[in-house]
Amino acid sequence: MPHLHPLDLTHISAPMVAHSDLPFRLLTTAHGATLTYTQMLDPARLASDRDYLAFHLRDLSISRQRRGREVVVQVSGNDAAVVSEGARRVAGLADAIDLNLGCPQQHAKDGHYGAYLLAQRDWPLVEDIVSTLAHTLALPVSAKLRLCTPAAQTLALAQRIEAAGASWVALHARYASVRRRRQGAAFLGEVRRLKFGSGEDGEAGVGIPVVSNGNVRCYADVARNLEETGADGVMVGETLLGNPW
User: Active-site residue 103, yes or no?
Assistant: First the structure.
């Protein structure tokens, strides 16, 4: 199974719809982000809409011209063939491909993608998408997810994503909600469980890097997050919109 890991996951600028464009990614990199993600892209449009594809290829091409500006292209979807074909169109200018398993918005619910693939009945589909990406592309493949319900299932899903060929996983340790993007503090203990397991009945964590997402409101929170979770890196999203430095 492919398991590639050439990227620095320490401080990551998260994928944010309508925000994670080229200027924002360059800004966060200039202020210390070791890796940035694009916003969630639609693989069906990458494969069928020439203007949409050209726009994002231009964005990625400029990123590629600047050394030290590694970028992960995030895609969404619920069909392995469609997702992999869309990803293939941009793979030549990407440093990794990420599958979105965390979008909680209504359009994701209506389209049955993002966080709405976290139910156990959809795990085989998630495995198929990750495996197809990992075996089709000569790039690292990752997944960004939210908590399953119940939360204890999140580790089991992450282990299956690992077995399918993912190089790392990022966990936004909150549950998905259409009505509320954020429901209190993130459950960072679940990130630690992903990394190390609970220790109960010999439960072990995943064997690939784990990135923690949540509860970072200032720079000091980054160190606190790493200490609490033991994660391999921290991903920051909305806080960067107000203070990218």
Answer: yes
Mean pLDDT throughout 120-124?
98
Domain presence at residue 107: yes
Does residue 170 sit within a domain?
A: yes
Strands (E), the chain: 11-13, 35-41, 71-75, 96-101, 141-146, 168-172, 210-213, 233-236
pLDDT tens-digit profile of 192-232?
999 999 877 778 999 999 999 988 988 899 999 999 999 99
Angle at 89 between CA 164 and CA 11, to 5 degrees: 60
Residue 3 covered by a domain: no
Domain region containing 110:
11-242
Domain count, the chain: 1
Catalytic residue among 82, 103, 126, 161: 103
CATH number at residue 56: 3.20.20.70
Q: Give the mean pLDDT of 121-148.
A: 97
Q: What is the pLDDT of residues 46-89, one digit of tens each?
A: 999 999 999 999 999 998 887 667 899 999 999 999 999 999 99
* Per-residue b or e along 165-176, where b marks 16 or more CB atoms closer than 10 Å to that residue's CB: bbbbbbbbbbbb
